[in-house]
Amino acid sequence: MALPWQTAGVRVDVFWRVAVVQLVAVALLSLLLGLIFSDGFFDDWGWLTGPAAWLACAWLTARVVGMEPGSTLLRAVLAGMLGGLAVLLGLHWLGAFLAVLLFAYLCARDPRPDSLAAE
Asked: Model confidence over 28-39: pLDDT tens digits?
């Protein structure tokens, strides 16, 4: 008997791999940038560095998990819009967490490349 998320076309193993890799990548890059730059830098340039960091982490996630980078970055843009909305509402880190979950869900719904389909 198929589980509900399997009938919906969601690969749970892919969801968790994407979620963990993206979450770790975002956390580590955030810590690194926080150590390098002052708060004032993010007040002035956060609108640019935040999305750029998010996309860089998504690219890394695509490489680590074995997904096609172009379509993965498109999913990251869609999920990142949720994070952007949260920033506007003053909920930056909650938005980032929800964006990671949405990103993982979007990645887990599409057909996998041969390397992942064989697993």
From this structure: 999 999 999 998
| Distance between CA atoms of residues 89 and 19, nearest Å | 23
Q: Which two tokens stand for residue 66?
A: 């074995």
| pTM (two decimals) | 0.84
Span between the terminal Cα atoms of the chain, in Å: 19
The mean pLDDT value for 35-57 works out to 94
What are the sequence ranges of the domains in the chain? 12-110
Tokens 């007040």 belong to which residue? Answer: 43
Residue 7 above 80 pLDDT? Answer: no
90 sits in the region (left: phi over 0; alpha: psi -120 to 50; else beta) called left
User: CA separation (Å) from 40 to 37, 56, 63?
Assistant: 8, 22, 32
104 closest CA partner among 80, 70, 87: 80
